[in-house]
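Exercise 7.
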Amino acid sequence: MASYIAEAGEFTRDTKYIETRITADGRDGYPVQPDRYRLIVARACPWANRAIIVRRLLGLESALSIGFCGPTHDERSWTFDLDTGGVDPVLQIPRLQDAYFKRFPDYPKGITVPAIVDVPTGAVVTNDFAQMTLDLSTEWTPHHRDGAPQLYPDSLRDEIDDVNKRVYSEINNGVYRSGFAGSQGAYDAAYDRLFTALDWVSERLEKQRYLVGETITEADVRLFTTFARFDPVYHGHFKCNRSKLSEMPVLWAYARDLFQTPGFGDTVDFVQIKQHYYIVHADINPTGIVPKGPDLADWLTPHGREALDGKPFGNGTPPGPTLDVERVPAGHGPVGVR
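Solution. The predicted structure, written as tokens, is:
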């Protein structure tokens, strides 16, 4: 059984990923080409959920196929147990590790999602989740849908980068620092850092609809995936329990605003999210019992943030309906979110 609790006390994430990039000029040997690559994700994972959202917002469905791993995994790898025969129908592999080992036979690190795989060779290209979504916005532009939003506009990149840096270190990863802490002191410090950052974000969002500028950007995508998991998982499982998200009025309204925006809530699978954390983290939850709550209906209640300046897609348009084969299963989210 894998251990997730940091025995040394403070949890430190290994942030060394496969830095190969898929670019318009193909400088790393992998040029942007429609139908060549496959994005492998798990709906349970917040880092992968970012890639799902960005791909959908930009309308890259026809250029970049997607494969879904199941919500749980063992010590070796994420698996394709949602597919017929437990095999990805395009890559024809049962475990994501097969794509990693195809390129790096002695790959020594964890097998992570999201990952982009080169279909012709079956080899992983990158698992650098932070750079991956930026490249979908900037390198894949010829394949964006008409009306796609500018998630990483030139004029706002420095500010987006600054906000993302603090959101990642204090919030996205901060919940893990709390949940995986191996000592009281490490937990206390992580908890305080997390809620200090949440208070900072709340103050920032009190008078503006989005984190940076007047439209949705990469910064909102990155914060949203943590917020979607906060009450179902992080509040209890990771002991981030000063307040539920639903008890922080500004952040709860902001989260509902994004959730009700096409491309966000329709990618969230609360059932798989809870199964992943409560089953995989057996050293934190040894019974493997998955909680029934919280009530999801509140995600669809009015948020009132239309009163603030800002339009979700600026001069663009929302994405169309989710493709049938990519829909979150019925009953895995609030009724009416498609």
